[in-house]
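Morning!

As promised:
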Amino acid sequence: MRSVDLTAEARIRRAALEMFPTRGVGGTTVRAIASAADVSPGLVLHHFGSKEGLLATCDRYVVETIRRYKTEPLADGSLNDPGFLAQIFSIAPPILRYLGWSLARGADAAAALFDEMLNESVRMFAVAEEQGIVKPTDDDTARAAVLLTMQLGFVVLHDHLSRALDTDVFEMDGLTRVTALMMDILTHGLFDPVALQSTRESLEAATEMVRRERRDS
Amino acid sequence: MRSVDLTAEARIRRAALEMFPTRGVGGTTVRAIASAADVSPGLVLHHFGSKEGLLATCDRYVVETIRRYKTEPLADGSLNDPGFLAQIFSIAPPILRYLGWSLARGADAAAALFDEMLNESVRMFAVAEEQGIVKPTDDDTARAAVLLTMQLGFVVLHDHLSRALDTDVFEMDGLTRVTALMMDILTHGLFDPVALQSTRESLEAATEMVRRERRDS
DNA sequence: CCACCGATTGAACGGTCGTCTAGCTTTCTG
DNA sequence: CAGAAAGCTAGACGACCGTTCAATCGGTGG
């Protein structure tokens, strides 16, 4: 058991971390969190000030956890440390689930994380362009942003994807499977360039129609 | 004005449709919905039985609206009718916003829609494979599912994407911009095939490490 | 004109929720 | 070891929520 020797404060946060995404903020009561953490309701507010405070703490905790796991391996090459990876895979599911929920809610901390990831992505694109790996666009930030939402899509829609794949995509097996498929799609592409052109043209035509409609009314 | 001559029932549903995604189900009170629809709280429950009933009605309404707009143009070629497109663009924002929220919540109706879209996608892949446009995979359903979560990512993460692009991606301009970018990414791909291979290898190595770790403990 | 029926209201009820307070227990510290 | 500080609990309070209900309004068919 790992959760036995946790601080009461940590137990509360852990319980909240699991309950908020599944039941929603309104559906999660302070009493339920307290009961799940095996403490009194009063203690929850003693440690976190208010329910809102607890929510904000969870937001920050998750974002900072992700942030730590995202940068550490780059910093000191600890990607080769099995313990580190084991930690990622074992801790990840509740954290990822919360992150998805947090992003969908538009929580401030999650929004900040999104923006950081976007900056990182833009920077990587710039490097890749210099190396001639990808072609420059007239709208580099937008391309990076769209790519990011596509990559993060499965984090928010994990439930549906897990159902379709009959595997929890936040567990190790599903995670590697999804990652591999996504990398494949993003490397080779899927659509036919010819079909792309005609689709784009009909899209432009539709836009123009609507624009004219609006001007006339 | 279009909303003036709406039935009270329709006004309530419309108000709920806008409030649920922004304030959450717990944060949206029957009284607030009633006030926004300019009716009494009692009438809300008279028409929808309960708050839960109203929520379920909204879920179904949105899904059925999307379903209608998705199939109609294919059925009778009404894609050329400007009125139809104008309707899509003018109705879309609240509906799409609700859909994103609904998908993130894992609402039953949204889940059913997801599964339908997945089936459709699988079917399209099958046709495309016959025509030699895309290569077959050993995991066709999974590929279609991952693609679907990528495509739907922007619907759920519209807030962040809109912020990054400084445009409402549910409005006409943003919608066409995002669609074009996404089609481009999914057509040409982004990553370097060589880099893909090394990434995949390190991913496999990591997985193996974790697997060994777990077996030993 | 009356009887009826759905739409609609507004007040009221029971319940639960977030929060506060006073006090008890444990741990740290000088 | 005394006492302060922090951890923690039980109970209560006020607010607000979803829901109920009796009563009213407005139109429609007999």
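Residues 8-9, 39-43, 46-47 of chain B lie near DNA strand C (CB under 10 Å from a C1').

Hope this helps with the figure draft.
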